[in-house]
Amino acid sequence: MGRFKRHHEGDSDSSSSASDSLSRGRRSLGHKRSSHIKNRQYYILEKKIRKLMFAMKALLEETKHSTKDDVNLVIPGSTWSHIEGVYEMLKSRHDRQNEPVIEEPSSHPKNQKNQENNEPTSEEFEEGEYPPPLPPLRSEKLKKHALMHISRAYEIYPNQSNPNELLDIHNERLEFLGDSFFNLFTTRIIFSKFPQMDEESLSKLRAKFVGNESADKFARLYGFDKTLVLSYSAEKDQLRKSQKVIADTFEAYLGALILDGQEETAFQWVSRLLQPKIANITVQRPIDKLAKSKLFHKYSTLGHIEYRWVDGAGGSAEGYVIACIFNGKEVARAWGANQKDAGSRAAMQALEVLAKDYSKFAR
């Protein structure tokens, strides 16, 4: 009996050990399964966030104000600042990866890009120093308002459920006003400076002057990137490095000048800020739409004429560089917003070159 009892007890110990082992195995399997599910959930969440960010990026690029305003109505400002930080990070990374490297031709309106980055001297401009002095705001309230980011407003008033109550705290309305006047002032300036430009050329030129890139550069000239007041979370998300956020600050300060009763001062300030860009614009003569036909009728019996796309990323922003080839030799090349204009300009230049020295390109 004793032996049976001891044997039975041994079986009990063995059974208990096996049960514990099985239990540990189940827990381990459950942990792995839970970990796998959690990792999969993270992956799905990350994928959805990525889709959301790129969708928001596309919407914000298409509609500068309305989309963001609509989002602010349903998403608290603190949450929006986090989303905007992720959006800016993705946009910055995307832009760096996809930025084309293009050698700009001499006839391109941006041909003096490197010169634009240099500060002009007093000899170059009658107005003197550059950048021009920052027009001071008479109202301390407006100055504080212009430099207050929405993320900081929600940080100061975390329990504010109505976004409209914070409109007089952060600078988004001022940015909206300043953006409108920045466009208006730039339109007045280029309309006066370039009377020979048509509507399409003026529109493209204005778009280059009033974009986030220009506004960001102007803001940094006056240290707005350092004086902008951000929330702790926005600082952590590196919004201070965001081109759009700093550009918005410049426009907000411009809007504050308007409300401060200094519209003419603001106009003169913007005029002087744009002077380096204005000075480096080369106005091209009107396109001769018949240039290709003229070149063909005059020289087709003397050699072979062809046109090749040799540079430019394409599209109205980057444009095309077309070379005119005569008897296998490049005679001229020119930039245009589209291939037709670029080809016509190349033909115009080729007519002049061949008229002066045809022998160099003869068979």
Structure description:
Among the domains are: 109-279, Orthogonal Bundle (Ribonuclease iii, N-terminal Endonuclease Domain, Chain A), CATH 1.10.1520; 291-361, Double Stranded RNA Binding Domain (2-Layer Sandwich), CATH 3.30.160. α3 packs antiparallel against α6 (150-156) and α7 (172-193) packs across α12 (243-259). It has helices spanning 2-62, 66-74, 77-98, 113-116, 140-146, 150-156, 172-193, 199-210, 212-221, 224-227, 232-236, 243-259, 263-279, 291-299, 315-318, 339-356; strands at 305-311, 320-326, 329-336. By secondary structure, it is mainly α. The N and C termini lie far apart (121 Å). The protein contains 16 helices and three strands. A hairpin with a 2-residue loop joins β2 (320-326) and β3 (329-336). It has a three-stranded antiparallel β-sheet. Helix content is 63%, strand content 6%.
Set out the fold topology.
Blueprint lengths: L1 H61 L3 H9 L2 H22 L14 H4 L23 H7 L3 H7 L15 H22 L5 H12 L1 H10 L2 H4 L4 H5 L6 H17 L3 H17 L11 H9 L5 E7 L3 H4 L1 E7 L2 E8 L2 H18 L7
Antiparallel strand pairs: 1-2, 2-3
Helix pairs in contact: 1-3, 3-6, 5-12, 7-8, 7-12, 7-13, 9-12, 14-16
From the 3D coordinates, which CATH architecture of the domain at 109-279 would you assign? Orthogonal Bundle
Beta-strand content bin: 5-15%
Distance between the termini: 121 Å
Quick one: CATH class of the domain at 109-279? Mainly Alpha
Radius of gyration: 32 Å
Number of helices: 16
